[in-house]
Amino acid sequence: MTRDPEALLPSAEPVMLIDPSGVPTGLAEVPDDDTMLAAYGALVAARRLNDQAYALVRQGRLAVYPSSHGQEACQVAAAQVLGADDWLFPTYRDTVAAVTRGVDPVEVLVLLKGDWHSGYDPYRTKVGPQATPLATQLLHAVGVGYAAKLRGEPTVVMALCGDGATSEGDFHEALNFAAVFGVPVVFFVQNNEYAISVPLARQSVAPSLAHKGVGYGVPGERVDGNDVAALLAVLGGAVAKARAGEGPQLVEAHTYRMQAHTNADDATRYRQDDEVAAWVERDPLMRAEAYLRGRGVLGDDQVTAYAAEADRVAAHVREGLNRDVEPNPDDLFDFVYARRTPQLEEQAALVADELSREDAS
Amino acid sequence: MTHEKLTMAQALNRALRDAMAEDPTVLMFGEDVGPLGGVFRITDGLTAEFGEERCFDTPLAESGIVGLAVGMAMNGMRPVVEMQFDAFAYPAFEQVVSHVAKLRNRTRGAVTVPMVIRVPYAGGIGGVEHHCDSSESYYAHTPGLHVLAPANAADAYGLLREAIASPDPVVFLEPKKLYWSKEEVDLAAPVPGIGRAAVVREGTDATLIAYGPSVPTALEAAEVAAQDGRSLQVVDVRSIVPFDDATVCDAVRSTGRAVVVAEAVGFASVSSEIVARVTERCFHSLAAPIRRVTGFDIPFPPPKLEHFQLPGVDRILDAVDDLQWEDS
Q: Is residue B286, in this structure, part of any structural domain at all?
């Protein structure tokens, strides 16, 4: 760990390894072809998942969906740079990150389908429950990492949040705690320019969000959030430093939320179409595809094959979400405590009595 | 039986020490709890005995402390955290309400957060502003938390041991004004567990229901009443959540009259909940409406005025006098 302020500062410009047309910038080496193809495959699946989930909202199968369309490279890279024993702490917009790490998308979407608050076992894939209250999960990430550190385990924790969450107190407390205790956490901010409707300029006038690490002694880095190669390199480097005992790292990705906050939001009330259009040409999926085609390692056949695999996942999601789960009123009372209190026993009996009278009538 | 004379502060310290010695996953952290031993010395000697990795100071941020504990509890530890004073716990409220209390339910039992949030609480010590709040209602209103308030050294030891061993998160309210009260304690003797109230003085004419700092006051009132020929029973609630309806209601039915004594603001409070619950269950046994002696609905007063706010013996006995006695 370093206390040299210069060494904590992010680069002047976000790191970009492949330009929007798919050409390497030469700034540093692009990850190898196998890594890039794996990332591309995940990006295709991610885009398809975002589109599918959005469609399922219109069909009434999901209550709401905060899409990460345009941010998929951030989430794919965040999951792919982790090892099996590492942890990922996602927010409600990070469905793609959880799915890329291996959580069944049907289980992730349980929250938004409305069957329960969370649909997956966090220990199976080491993915924390998706957090809705902003920045609160960053402290849990620090705690998970610190417990592992005290036991001498080499676990690194990837903690996700958005630009708006960097204004929350828990963001600052998490960075400070992680730094003071030397906890191997990578704080990864997806700066998509908007917190629902509020633009970045109203969150912060700091030189960048990555600069916020300096105040806590945490090194910051900035990366093009639509360049999956740069994301893999920068996040992978941050994970390696954290694992090597260099303490927490802060990475800010510059990206853009191409769709509204959720389907319930109307983005035309706060941003112009031409602003959105300018980001279309920076699309992370197209950029990766152009690069890999240019390398000669991706052709039409493979593109079709990846798309077919993504369609298969989408079909699995449709099938899962179209399956109605019979609500069990016992669930209301069974998970509040390890054992129901006498009061919850009484209340469960009340509901059971109501149901038995409904059945009788 | 190994009786020793201990203060509540010493009993709490022993509970932490014994739990940490027994289970290496038990950790203690918070503000000034390391080498200093806490501003009330509850963690005295723990860092020296167990090392800085088991009992440590954190940066001064309560949400950070509780959020860190959530993550550590998720990953195999049993953290005990200290909020330095009742009113300094409020920055942690979101973590407590949205995560500590809900994670088990959110994940259908997959994630549990066994942890204890120790809160030195309530008044009676001449503390200045923000050092004397009775904050139990905030926690009691949040499903998923257990809320305990011991009133003597034996319960302080026994309940804290049980809180640390509990699979569920516990808010442990330590009455500051009782920290230094000394009594004979047998630490090896079991005490009633979480969810159990206790009749701490038998009586036949009326029941005083109290918890935490108000229990000794209720006992004192019962002693004075006895000299006047009135036999008051005293119930120590001990476990605010889960609440022991059976013990409290049996007690009230046996006397037919009751007064609830609590230091907290009375409006929308634990004391109003107790009156509602007991009335619903014991209406036909009651000879008079249940009375309450609580703090007024005001911010906790400055030290020179706090005696007006604290339930005292006279106010309790006045309330008892109002219980529609046939002989008056």
A: yes
- The full set of domain ranges for chain A reads 5-325, 328-361
Q: Which residues of chain B are within 8 Å of residue A126 when distances are taken between CB atoms?
A: none
**Beta-carbon neighbour count of residue A260 at 10 Å?**
19
Q: Once rounded to an integer, what is the mean pLDDT over residues A40-48?
A: 98
Segment A282-330, tens digit of pLDDT: 999 999 999 999 999 999 999 999 999 999 999 999 999 999 989 899 9
Q: How confident is the model at residue A5 (pLDDT cuts 50, 70, 90)?
A: confident
Asked whether residue B179 falls in the same domain as residue B33, the answer is yes
Residue-wise pLDDT for B114-138, tens only, equals 999 999 999 999 999 999 999 999 9
A8-26 per-position pLDDT tens digit: 999 999 999 999 999 999 9
Return the CATH number at B294: 3.40.50.920
Residue A337 in contact with residue B169, Cβ under 8 Å? no
Contact yes or no for B70 and A336 at CB 8 A: no
Interface subset of A 296-335, CB within 8 angstroms of B? 331, 334-335
* Range B114-150 burial, b when 16+ CB lie within 10 A, else e: bbbbbbbbbbbbebeeebbbbbbbbbbebbbbbbbbb
Closest partner CB to A343 (pick from B66, B95, B243): B243
DSSP codes of every residue in B113-156: ---EEEEEE---S---TTS----HHHHHTSTT-EEE---SHHHH
pLDDT value at B328 more than 80: no
Spatial distance between the Cα atoms of B212 and B263, rounded to a whole number of angstroms: 9
pLDDT digits (tens, 9 = 90+) for B55-101: 999 999 999 999 999 999 999 999 999 999 999 999 999 999 999 99
Q: Are the beta carbons of B68 and A177 separated by less than 8 Å? A: yes
Q: From the list B63, B74, B246, which residue is nearest A173 (CB)?
A: B63
Question: Which of B146, B164, B186 is the last residue in one of the domains?
Answer: B186
**Binary contact (B67, A170; C-beta < 8 A):** yes
Helix axis angle for A284-295 and A33-58, nearest 10°, is 150
Contact status of A59 with chain B (Cβ, < 8 Å): no
CATH code for the domain in which residue B175 is found: 3.40.50.970
Please answer whether residues A255 and A20 qualify as being in contact, where contact means their C-beta atoms are separated by less than 8 angstroms: no
* Main-chain phi, psi angles of A89, to 5 degrees: -115, 100
Same domain, B79 and B156: yes
**Best B20, B63, B249 residue to mutate vs chain A (most A CBs within 10 Å):** B63
Q: What number does CATH give the domain A5-325?
A: 3.40.50.970
The pLDDT of residue A359 is: 85
Q: Do B94 and A136 touch (CB under 8 A)?
A: yes
Q: Is B284 one of the catalytic residues?
A: no
Q: Do A336 and B75 touch (CB under 8 A)?
A: no
Mean pLDDT confidence for A85-101 = 97
Name the residue range of residue B29's domain.
3-186
